[in-house]
Amino acid sequence: MNIAQLPTPALIVDFDKMKNNIHEMQQRIDALQLNLRPHTKAHKSPTIAKMQIDAGAQGICTAKLGEAEVMAAGGINDILITTPIAGKNKIQRLVKLYQQYPDYRFIQVIDHKQHIIDISEAATDAGICIELMIEVESGQQRCGVEIGDDLISLIETINCSDGVSYVGLQAYSGHLQHIKGYQERNTQARTVVEDLFNYINNVLTPKGLAPEIVSGGGTGTYEAYQGLGFSEIQAGSYLFMDTTYQDIGDENDQYQNNQFDVTLKVLSTVISHPTPQRAIIDAGMKCLSIDLGMPKIESDDMLSYKTGGDEHGIIHLIDNHEPLQIGQQLILLPSHCDTTLNNFNTLYAVRGSEVIGQFPIIGRGRSD
Ligand SMILES: Cc1ncc(COP(=O)(O)O)c(C=O)c1O
């Protein structure tokens, strides 16, 4: 099938370039002598997760328990759930994952004593042991216990509770991923976690509380940590990229990140052309997220996008631009891959203008 036959708006991915991105990141992480545990919140597809594991990833991350259920059902057997869970229902679902897939590994991130008490109680009742990773504050002021006595207290609470075990620490600095300029970004990323590694070396290790795993890093910061003590990198967006990530720069180009190609795109159709300067496409906020800015139009800098609400996109044509045709397709490059993907049920794999396959986005909407 040709992309011209796809009903729009449609989410498409340049399949060969996505595969290249997957291998490129794996090679880069191998060269740093770290493990890659890609964050699958970007794609929400067990099939793509398998591609990452086949390329060498040692497991995956999911943001949410619901996504972990989808990935486990799809045969992914090593999953780190990177967001704490709360409440009896959620904890019972975590217990059920352990019971349903006894040979799989699930690690749950926590950052509060109450998490440990509740998970320990449910796991002990079920006769299982749940692996816990403690999230530490890494500059983002989101989840994460402060480094110091509170962290030690959490580790000791896990160590003296039944039904739970301490496997390590999560330190993810999400607020630094998009800093423009390679040096500046990597310096900030390293600086913000230096205290943590000093603390591990000078306090936790002598007390016998050293983490087995230290997990963190993203597409923008994965290179910052060499020699510090991270054991695995959680980068996710690299397989798709987006215009925000493209604009952060890399080691060779201050203004453009060429380490990975932008592969995720939205195919849309011109549905109206009310004036010579204004055309309307069928892609609004219900398919293109704009939390990180407006999408760009592929291969035409003389066209710009502005949101026209839920269902419409407004395309501005500069003076003297050739009129667009009603029914003509336009390809948009999203500014934020994760939140754009979560608007679609299907991701079409394309090679040039040929549709060569499709990935159902099974984890879509599974933020539960
Ligand atoms: C905890 C955590 N780890 C890793 C990532 C992946 O980062 P990126 O998609 O920027 O590579 C995210 C993304 O939001 C995250 O929240």
UniProtKB/TrEMBL annotation:
Q: Does the keyword Lyase apply?
A: yes
List the keywords (alphabetical).
Lyase
D-serine dehydratase-like domain: which residues?
Answer: 263-351
Tell me which CDD domains the record gives.
PLPDE_III_LS_D-TA
The residues that cross the membrane are none
List, alphabetically, the PANTHER family matched: D-SERINE DEHYDRATASE, ZGC:162816-RELATED
Q: Which family does it belong to?
A: Belongs to the DSD1 family.
Q: What is the name attached to this protein's record? A: DSD1 family PLP-dependent enzyme
Q: Which organism is it from?
A: Photobacterium angustum
